[in-house]
Specification:
It is a single chain. It contains 8 helices and 8 strands; from the N terminus they run ααβαβαββαβααβαββ. It is an alpha/beta fold. It has a single domain, classed as 3-Layer(aba) Sandwich (Rossmann fold), CATH 3.40.50. Strands 1, 2, 3, 4, 5, 6, 7 and 8 form an 8-stranded mixed sheet that branches.
Amino acid sequence: MEKDKIFQEDPQKWGGFQFDEKVTRVFDDMLNRSIPQYQELQQMIMDLVDIFYQKNSTIYDLGCSLGTLMGKIHLTFGDRITRQVGIDNSPSMIEKADSLLSKTVPGAPIELVCSDINDLELNDASIVIMNYTLQFVRPIFREKLLKNIFSQLKPGGILILSEKVLEDSQEISHLFHDLYYRFKMRNGYTATEIARKRACLEHVLVPYKASEHMQLLEETGFKSVQLFHKWFNFASFLAVKE
């Protein structure tokens, strides 16, 4: 696994943050050192897949990056999962995901699509997963995207949404961000790297409050919306279409 040293270099020299080949090469290390309890969250998602997957339906991973979760789902459930589709708008991510999955789960019923998720069409979807993806969608398009997902989900289907979030209290939001930076420094990032990445992501990653996510999902049409995992300023939501 190549170590993430991207922000040891001034991002102005390479044009700011984007999911390009440079990020793709270090993405696994970046995730493990930047997303709190990421492995535990993936296991929780697989537990939800075990409960909510509907026979002969499709699982969609929107913003699938390297396809790691889809590979784990196949290794855990095998032929019980008829079809998985991973969608990402980064060509380098899709290319590497295809290479990795062909080695780890050869012949698995997994399709990879390089596309903008705002244009997606779902077929027989019982589970849609969005791990830290919606936050990169321009706010003006988020409600329409979620309504599109809801309308195409099978009855009883679910949306699993994980996001970096704000709190209703600005003071608590600042506290949680400070605690997150402590987490990253414990994982080997320097204060300079953290500051550079934060500046680079400004206006690219636009977080909502946890309460705003709950409200938006309910307004989209989901009748049952639950916060099922929380670590300071990271949250995961389960939305069920009844």
